TrEMBL record:
The keyword Iron applies. Its cofactor is heme. Pathway: Secondary metabolite biosynthesis. The lineage of its organism: Eukaryota, Fungi, Dikarya, Ascomycota, Pezizomycotina. Gene3D superfamilies: Cytochrome P450 (1.10.630.10). This is Cytochrome P450. Heme binds at C404. It comes from the Eukaryota. InterPro entries: Cyt_P450 (IPR001128), Cyt_P450_E_grp-I (IPR002401), Cyt_P450_sf (IPR036396), Cytochrome_P450_monoxygenase (IPR050121). Keywords: Heme, Iron, Metal-binding, Monooxygenase, Oxidoreductase. It holds the Pfam family p450. One of its GO terms (molecular function) is heme binding. It comes from Lepraria neglecta.
């Protein structure tokens, strides 16, 4: 789709694609103005069809695809858990998980073999989001955890209905595997919920005293207390509350680790391809955390606010997200919504899925200077500099009321990883060696890039980012 957009530069604002029989027509928008109209100014609804597609992962109406009052109420319940100041207080917990991640990198570096980084970062980010969501340690980085394994299996079995291989699309084993994975996930979450509730003779559970944090499960418990205060204590409500909470926890654990992992991989890749960037990163980290990088973990854990004092590191991450956004945004058109193109033409959205295609917008030469070049400096210059980003052109987390709830956490995670590893390791892509051991027919690169993005729910690096790790 990105390549198609580039073939029609004069139609970059809006174009339609007939996707029958796979989906309703797509209305692709790839300019700051048209994206803003769809997401910020009119805030079109999330498609109900996507909720159905992701049901095997989430298990019910989820915060990502809810609409209307149901979404507003649910979002208000969980907003405190992603407050920036609260998340900074969780940096020591993030550091603990990154320390485990570092030990895995050290082992890979000592072996000197080609090493797929994407699966390892997936396990890291899943352990982190579990601490924020459930206030527990899964230790999935060290040994497979039943819930984490079931969730990742469920993601690998997800079908979006667009597979050309008909057996893959309608694999008869899929329903059985998905049922079992859902059973494992819910069994684990039921146990965790029981830790926060105690049965009483009247069968209405008492909520245990909230802990001194704002984990998602804790916020759900607080919300339930408020419901009981209003007199809604019937058994049906208790069951509905339990199912609602399990669905949202599954959603947070899924959405909170998949795209963040990919962002880590692409940050490492772009840093390794640009030695001057790595040098500047190391200088910034020496300045903020001290030249002895072995003490960075303790410094960051004791002074978590320092994680927000690394402007160049932040710029590197933002530029990686610009070049390789992990997802896009899709909304549901409506009869009364028209998108106005750059030439003033009004385009109807009725009966379409409006696709804000980040991959195209983020590299659109109409809005970015040197769009295919990795330039973290564009995030550090003033508004009079040609590199200065155009408003609304960078949107990996989207804007408006439906923006990504976990964007602050994602940025903190990637910053913590870079701060604690970039001075200790050299990580370089090893696709040449990988291809020798895994030959395949056809082109190996997309737009000259071997580490192109592939679809695995979110966008991930091809072949899991095979790399070699060198200890400094």
């Amino acid at each position: 789709m990105e390549r198609l957009s580039r073939q029609f530069p004069n139609s970059d604002s809006v174009y339609y694609m007939d996707m029958w029989p796979f989906s309703p027509p797509l209305m692709v928008v790839s300019s700051p103005s048209t994206a803003s109209q769809a997401v910020q100014q009119q805030s079109l609804r999330k498609p109900s069809t996507l909720m159905d597609l992701f049901y095997p992962i989430t298990g019910g109406p989820d915060l990502i695809f809810m609409n209307g009052e149901q979404w507003k109420k649910s979002r208000s319940v969980f907003n405190p858990g992603f407050n920036p100041s609260y998340l900074v207080s969780q940096v020591p917990a993030i550091v603990e998980e990154v320390v485990i991640f570092k030990s895995i990198l050290q082992g890979a570096g000592q072996q000197g073999k080609v090493f797929q980084l994407d699966p390892v970062t997936l396990n890291l980010t899943l352990d982190v989001i579990a601490r924020i969501t459930l206030d527990i340690q899964l230790h999935h980085q060290q040994s497979p955890h039943e819930f984490a394994s079931a969730l990742q299996s469920q993601m690998s079995w997800l079908s979006l209905g667009n597979e050309f291989n008909l057996f893959k699309r309608w694999n008869p084993a899929r329903p059985l595997v998905q049922w079992y994975n859902a059973y494992v996930m819910d069994r684990f979450l039921d146990k965790e919920l029981d830790k926060h509730f105690e049965p009483t003779p009247g069968n209405a559970p008492d909520v245990k005293a909230p802990r001194s944090n704002r984990s998602i499960i804790g916020l759900s418990a607080e919300s339930y207390i408020k419901e009981r205060t209003l007199g809604r204590t019937d058994e049906a409500m208790d069951k509905a509350f339990r199912e609602f909470t399990k669905t949202q926890i599954r959603t947070f654990l899924f959405a909170g680790h998949d795209t963040t992992s990919s962002s880590m991989c692409y940050a490492y890749y772009l840093i390794s391809e640009n030695p001057s960037t790595l040098a500047k990163l190391r200088t910034e980290h020496d300045t903020i955390f001290g030249e002895d990088y072995t003490k960075a973990e303790s410094v960051l854990a004791e002074k978590p606010h320092l994680i927000n004092m690394v402007p160049y590191t932040t710029a590197v991450i933002k530029e990686a997200l610009r070049m390789f956004p992990p997802s896009s945004s899709i909304r549901e058109g409506s009869p009364d919504c028209f998108i106005v193109g750059a030439d003033g033409t009004k385009y109807p959205t009725d009966s379409t899925l409006v696709w804000v295609m980040h991959q195209s917008l983020h590299r659109n030469p109409n809005y970015w200077v040197r769009p295919d070049d990795f330039l973290p400096e564009r995030w550090l210059v003033g508004p009079n500099d040609p590199l200065y980003p155009i408003k609304d052109a960078w949107r990996p987390f989207e804007f408006g009321p439906r923006n990504c709830l976990g964007q602050e956490l994602a940025m903190l995670e990637v910053k913590a990883v870079l701060i604690l590893t970039c001075r200790e390791f050299n990580i370089a892509a090893a696709y040449d060696e990988w291809d020798l051991g895994h030959p395949k027919n056809g082109p190996k690169s997309v737009k000259g890039d071997r580490m192109y993005q592939i679809e695995r729910v979110g966008a991930h690096p091809a072949d899991g980012f095979p790399c070699k790790i060198q200890l400094r």
